[in-house]
Specification:
Elements lengths: L1 H24 L2 E2 L7 E8 L9 H16 L7 E8 L4 H14 L4 E3 L4 H14 L3 E4 L15 E3 L4 H15 L5 E6 L2 H14 L6 E7 L7 H9 L4 E5 L2 H14 L4 E4 L6 H8 L8 E4 L13 H13 L8 H20 L2 E2 L1 H8 L28 E7 L4 E9 L6
Parallel strand pairs: 1-12, 2-3, 2-4, 4-5, 5-6, 7-8, 7-9, 9-10
Antiparallel strand pairs: 11-13, 13-14
Helix pairs in contact: 2-11, 3-4, 5-6, 8-9, 11-12
Length: 407
Amino acid sequence: MNNRRAFLAATTVLAFAFSAGQALAQKKYDTGASDTEIKFGQTVPFSGPYSAYANIGKSELAYFAMINDKGGINGRKLNLIQYDDAYSPPKTVEQVRKLVESDEVLFTFQVIGTAANAAVQKYLNSKKVPQMLASTGASRFTDPQGYPWTMAFNPNYQSEARIYAKYILANHPNAKIGILYQNDDMGRDYVAGLKSGLGEKASMIVGEVPYEVTDPTVDSQIVKLKSMGTDLLFDASTPKFGAQAIKKLADLGWKPVHILDINASPMSATLKPAGLDISKDIISTAYGKDPGDPQWKDDAGMKAYFAFMDKYFPEGDKLNTINTYGYSVAELMTQILRQCGDDLTRENLMKQAANVKDFVPSLGLPGIKVNTSPSDFRVNKQMQLMKFNGERWELFGPIIEDTGPAG
């Protein structure tokens, strides 16, 4: 009898030890994660020529504060560390190294800008540190084979340009296209995507004129494009230079069909500084709801966004689409972290980011869903065209999904 009791006692102890071991095994952490915290970091141009994007970082920090007030993610508080890089790639390198080697973050999040992300991509991939939801759409940041630790949030620039190409072929099949583009990965990707989308009709392009981010203005580039006989301007720029282009067009009295890439489409950062009256009829794309559009006034997602801004970012401009962008990226990052459960390893983080299925963003246009896969890291590949009416952007046409190559 004593032997039987001893056997049962030993079995009970072993069973308890096994179940406890299983519970512990379910929790996996890499540097930057623990039972109580998930630590991650980003660089933001809080100063410098691209400081218009500073509100991206501010709205994201506010969003994670809201999540923390609701108990965090699976009981863990989110600790987002931010540094100013002034949109200077050498500064980005310095600050990202600090995040990884001194702050010991689990991952980087939403480093802002194509040049900034390019400067740290190889470093982060060599360290196997996830470069999560980078704020860029250059194709090199949606390349799971070449850079398996990098995933961008923005619509792939080539995908976006192919959507414009479809519009041009359908509505302006005899256009003489002039391209203004930023001379970096962003601008070159837009040019490549437009040519890919136009296919054998790429001969419609009569000129390609680059500018450098250090240029004081793009006035001379606009004059040059006009002299080429351009009647459709494809403007692959950022807010500062987009606004300059709009002003110069008005100064010249030149009215080509003007397609402006999504990066330069925010009213507050581009159209208002240029002048709303002279921005009329510009065409761009969107994948998110515009908080200034009255059609969304009763939308549940928009109401939640306005309530968030009132409580967590009251000094921010609720109608600035840069803030809705930051809100939306933070929302997706929260979803990916929830999918990770208690396996907060860098490997699982990338696995979950590459397995987002039919996620409906609260501020996404109706019909838009986020789907990723191990072979397609593009987050946003569905968009809808829009035209500026002098007061606000008006959506037109159907949701268009780019089915071209991912990179």
